[in-house]
Every structure is written in structure tokens, then in C-alpha cells.
Design goal:
The protein is an alpha/beta fold and 368 residues long. The chain folds into two domains: 158 residues, 3-Layer(aba) Sandwich (Rossmann fold); 200 residues, Dehydroquinate synthase-like, alpha domain, CATH 1.20.1090. Helices cover 54% and strands 11% of the residues. It is built from 17 helices and seven strands. The strands form two sheets. Strands 2-1-3-4-7 form a five-stranded parallel β-sheet. Strands 5-6 form a two-stranded antiparallel sheet. A hairpin with a 2-residue loop joins strand 5 and strand 6. Helix 7 runs parallel beside helix 9. 47% of the residues are buried.
Length: 368
């Protein structure tokens, strides 16, 4: 599953791509070492770069990317970056510019037809697994919306551990927790099946062992392991989708600038305890109690309290701040905006029905 730079060289040279559109984040492209590598590789190609500006994938920048792609007419789109870069590329490759695009996004009703170009992605973070998922997100007026289609899955991806090592520690921590959360949420999602359970379980066996060592002493071995864990978590959620912790995380990113995986971590234990303690209201087709037993076994814990304690320790070791005051978050003051920003599509996958009142009680507890 892990690739080398030679794999990318072979792919680009063998296919003889003439025009390549490279979408990337400027800092990550330079810091990862990708810039030096690609400048040597694409000397004889016609290339256009688009450096994203927004931390989040936002509608306005997406429009500019689509325009540039249509004007340049590439036969390969190459996305080199984190989840936001890859999501931009995935969406821009299947969406046309049209007057009603914003409305179609808000109503989750875009009529997907075909890909514009071949798309290859190279992650510079180990977290979202966006290189294998059939969904992508974009923020419109500060609210996160999802696209879902098999057409969004990239044609090719390359996992290059060297490109992960130099990422800032906060990005490594946030991305890595996102991979752990995705795998855990996948295991209890209403849409999970035997295949997603296998992917999620394999992902967790790796990330539990490698996440903290990757943060404390990043090297090619643990970078490769976290790449694989992220990829497997992505495969799992592409089937099952995520649940309440992800659904509720988005407004904390858009309103308070808390990075995605960090935002997912804020109330993670509380939502897992809610689901565990309300198993009698489970809407799953599988035995939810058995899934929790699987999770406890993977984490070598006995019960939900032991499990939550272990998650809290992992977050502490990763330096993911959980104190809302220190993060300048006041739940009561911003409650309306927070509830409005919650992704209802993801909330619908939660194994136990959960409404706005439940969510408010859970997140308010953290503020007290």
C-alpha cells in the first residue's frame, strides 16, 4: 500500500500526461519536500499550479479552482496536500459552474455525471483518508455541506511517508486523531457492514500503536504506519460514514478555527458514552453491545469508562487542548450558530437517535 517517489515518476512518465494541473497548499507543498521533487519531475510538461489560500474548503475558492481547471484543460489533476486540498480537487473534477450550484450544494442534490479529468492524489497528512473516500466537503456561508458520489473517488493515490514527516506537530496530532475517530465512529455507524468493520479494526490496531510515536519521534516507519491507518479508516467511513462526533465538529472548525481532528476530539468521549448508555434505543441492524465489546477489546479496556479514560490520555499525550475556555469557546453564547452548523447527514448515521437538545446538553456540560 505504501508507495515510493519512483511510483509517481513512473505513473506520470508512462501515461505521458501533457498538461498537469497541480492543486496544493503552499506551505505543505514546500515543507513536505514535494515542491523540489515535482519541479524536477515536470520540467517537460505544461503545468499550472493552484495554491489554496483557505484553511477550510470554501465555496468561493472552489469556484476559482473550477474556473482555472476548465480554462487550462488538463489531462491530469494532481492534488498534493491535506484533506482540504484533496476535497477541493475531488469536487472540482466533477462539478460544473452553474448559477444554481450553491442551491444544489445546500440541498445535497447535485446531479453528478462524469469526471472532467483523471485525478491522482498524494496526501501530506495522515488523517482523513480522503484519497479513497466517495465524499468531499465544502463550506458555504460558514456551514459545512457534503458531496457524495462514487465519481468523487480519485483514480489514483500515492502514499509517500517522506511527505508526512515535516508537517507541524499540531497538524499531525489533529489529523491522526481524525483517523482514530473515523475508525471508531465507523464501527458503530448504522451503515457499517462486515467490510467496514474489518477496515476500521485494522486501522485502529495500527494507529493505537503508532499515533503517539509518530507525534513524538516521526520517522519513515511510523509515518508509513499512520498513512496505512488513515487509508484504512478512509475506506471504512467511505462505506459506513461518520456519526455524532464528526457531525458536531464542523461548527467548531468554522466558528472557532479549531482544526478538524481537534474539533472532533472535543466531545468525543461524551458522545461515545451517550451511545453506549442508550443502547436500548439503538437503531442499528447489528448488536451495538458487541461492537462496543470489540472496541473495548481493541483498546484493551473493560468498559466505557476505561475506554473514555484511555481516549482522554491519548488526547493529552497528543496535546489536543480540551479546555473550551482556553480555546475561547463559549457554548451558551454561540449555541444557535453551533446547532445551525451541525451536519445532519452525519448525525443520521449515529446508532442512537440524537437531537438538538441531547447535543446541547452534551456540549454544554463541557462548558461548565
Amino acid at each position: 500500500m505504501i508507495n515510493s517517489k519512483k511510483d509517481i515518476e513512473k505513473f506520470i512518465n508512462d501515461r505521458n500526461f501533457k498538461k498537469i494541473f497541480i492543486l496544493c497548499g503552499k506551505k505543505s507543498f514546500i515543507n513536505s519536500g514535494a515542491e523540489i521533487f515535482f519541479k524536477n519531475l515536470i520540467k517537460n510538461k505544461e503545468v499550472k499550479f493552484f495554491y489554496k489560500n483557505s484553511e477550510l474548503p470554501i465555496f468561493e475558492e472552489l469556484i476559482n479552482i473550477i474556473k482555472d481547471i476548465k480554462n487550462f484543460k488538463p489531462n491530469l489533476i494532481l492534488a498534493v496536500g491535506g484533506g482540504a486540498v484533496i476535497d477541493y480537487a475531488k469536487i472540482a473534477n466533477v462539478v460544473d459552474l452553474r448559477p444554481d450550484l450553491a442551491d444544489l450544494i445546500v440541498n445535497y442534490s447535485y446531479p453528478f455525471k462524469q469526471k472532467y479529468s483523471q485525478l491522482a492524489v498524494i496526501p501530506t497528512t495522515a488523517g482523513s483518508g480522503a484519497e479513497v473516500t466517495s465524499n468531499a466537503v465544502v463550506y458555504l456561508d460558514g456551514i459545512k455541506h457534503s458531496f457524495e458520489s462514487e465519481l468523487l473517488i480519485p483514480d489514483n493515490f500515492f502514499l509517500i511517508p517522506e511527505f508526512l514527516i515535516s508537517a507541524p506537530s499540531e497538524i499531525k496530532a489533529s489529523s491522526g486523531f481524525d483517523a482514530i475517530a473515523q475508525a471508531l465512529e465507523s464501527l458503530i455507524s448504522k451503515k457499517s457492514n462486515d467490510q467496514s468493520v474489518e477496515y476500521a479494526s485494522k486501522s485502529l490496531k495500527i494507529s493505537i500503536k503508532s499515533y503517539i510515536s509518530f507525534l513524538n519521534d516521526p520517522n519513515l516507519k511510523n509515518a508509513a504506519e499512520m498513512s496505512i491507518a488513515s487509508n484504512l479508516a478512509g475506506r471504512a467511513i467511505s462505506i459506513s460514514k461518520t456519526t455524532a462526533p464528526h457531525a458536531v465538529s464542523y461548527p467548531f472548525t468554522s466558528l472557532f478555527n479549531v482544526s478538524h481532528g481537534h474539533a472532533v476530539s472535543l466531545f468525543f468521549e461524551s458522545f461515545f458514552k451517550f451511545n453506549h448508555d442508550n443502547q436500548n434505543k439503538s437503531e442499528t441492524s447489528f448488536n451495538l453491545n458487541k461492537r462496543f465489546s470489540l472496541i473495548f477489546n481493541l483498546f484493551k479496556t473493560q468498559n466505557i469508562n476505561d475506554f473514555n479514560s484511555k481516549i482522554s490520555i491519548i488526547k493529552k499525550k497528543a496535546k489536543l487542548e480540551g479546555n473550551l475556555t482556553k480555546l475561547n469557546i463559549n457554548i451558551e453564547k454561540s449555541s444557535d450558530k453551533i446547532i445551525k452548523g451541525i451536519n445532519l447527514l452525519r448525525l443520521g448515521n449515529n446508532p442512537v437517535k440524537i437531537d438538538g437538545d441531547d447535543i446541547f446538553k452534551i456540549i454544554l456540560k463541557k462548558n461548565i
